[in-house]
Amino acid sequence: MLRPLRRLSRPPRRAAATGPGRRLLLSTPIFYVNGPPHIGHLYSALLADALHRHRLLRGAGPGRLSTGTDEHGLKIQQAAAEAGTSPPELCERVSSLFHQALTHAAVSFTDFTRTSEPRHQRAVHHFWGALRDGGALYKGSYEGWYCTPEECFLPESQLAERRDAQGRPCKVSLETGHQVHWTKEDNYMFRLSAFQDPLRKWLRDNPQAISPHPFYQRVLHWLEEDLPDLSVSRERSRLQWGIPVPSDSTQTIYVWVDALVNYLSVVGYPETHSEWWPAVHHVVGKDILKFHAVYWPALLMAAGLAPPKRILVHSHWTVRGQKMSKSLGNVIDPFACIGQYTVDGFRYFLLRQGVPERDCDYYDEKVVKVVNSELADALGGLLNRSTALSINPSNTYPCFSESCFPKVLDYRETKGMGRASAEDYEFVASVASLPLQVANYFEGFQIYKALECIALCVRQTNSFFQRHRPWKLNRKDPAEQLWLDTIIHITLECLRVYGTLLQPVIPHTADRLLSRLAVEPEERGLSSLTFLARYNGKSCPFEGRQLGPDTGILFHRLEKSRQLQIETKKL
After folding, report:
1. 118: which residues sit within 8 A by CB, 6+ positions away?
2. What residue stretches are annotated with the Methionyl/Leucyl tRNA synthetase domain (predicted)?
3. Which phi and psi angles does 76 have, rounded to 5°?
4. What number is the average pLDDT over the span 24-39?
5. 3-state SS of 550-571?
6. Residues 549, 553, 557, CA angle at the centre, nearest 5°?
7. Is 484 exposed, middle or buried (0-12, 13-18, 19+ CB in 10 A)?
């Protein structure tokens, strides 16, 4: 029997601001266990991890980072049968691979949810009850084109005509190329159509709810089209591996409804979730945007909960211009990449080269070139040159001389003062503005731009060091010694800023750099980060401090892989 949709007596509770002292949950998607991890999964996790680490370094308040595995659905049921194992055994094995991959990549997750866990299943049952009690569900007959790999029904507008392996005509998903099959079932339906206007209002009132902006526009466009009701269960006879619908043993809850509730179960739904929800930022791939930006907010509204504060969307990685696929044999294994390029090297590459607004291309030569140029040569070389005993025999953070580098009111109007040139003043101003620039880019989900700015400043610092040739200065001349100390002081100050700002991206390398500069753990936060205090007439706590132990090369240059060398010889 159809039940009218109950109108909420009050609007869903809004999220608290996420400024200083506010809680925030950052989440990755939970990853489907029909196959092992690849770099697309790792990219999602690294984006969320960098945001989480950056926020903690800012001292912005309690934070959590959740990830996990999505373990139900027809795809898992079929994959287990093909592998000659049971769904629970397959899930245990593949979920463990994801846990290992994320741990190996230094993803600082606080929670790892598995949808097969009892706590999650209890949350799903409660959420279903909230939808049912609110009149958002009804039983109906549903038919359409079902895509098993994507676990969803697709409209005709998202299909194309192709031929299968036997040359027979078939329909496939336009986006993924996966084959679809006509399916007719008696299912529970969710009144998605009733939420078209509330969803539009939510987005128009919250223009930052979905970032980057092109994805926000895409969702608004979807909401201008018809929004048909959504099938939210499957017949139990077809799908046994899933959570049964409460009080109806003939139906299994649709895998996407089950999976989406992980964002609630991780924060203690239905008892303690209000301590965190809805101060949540979801990091998701563009292929699951509709599930997170249309279906999920509508389901939350129907259950009396507010939508998440932000949905941060990224694009995909291709491999030498081709989409990653098992059939092409070009799926990139993150374990192999970390072994070849190191944890920090591969983290840096993905976050430096990954642009959320568009697909990015992976190939080995690019990893080697970027990491060697920016980490090994530019950053590592700068640290090595400025701390070498031949340049800094006392192994200390030397003093800054105001007479060599006098304070100016406007660097754009000076031609240079003391021993400093106009170019030096411009360079120092760039580094001084860097922490705020980086913070703004992190807030805008443009981590790659933050790293671009840091890399530019590192290059400028190398140019500053090279321009003044401190190795040529005569230490026996007091004036020359003052200028030498000032050059090294400025260089070490720059390195301290870069090391601090790079902690969310390359945590191990940043730790080694800061330890070499004798920066204590409590001095590594972003909220108290200052630069060149002496230039601004303040005391510098690092001046005169003995540097930390020399642990050798900061970042070793990468070698081309054996396969890459073979390919180069062929050319």
Report:
1. none
2. 25-386
3. -70, -45
4. 95
5. CCCCCCCCCCCCHHHHHHHHHC
6. 165
7. buried
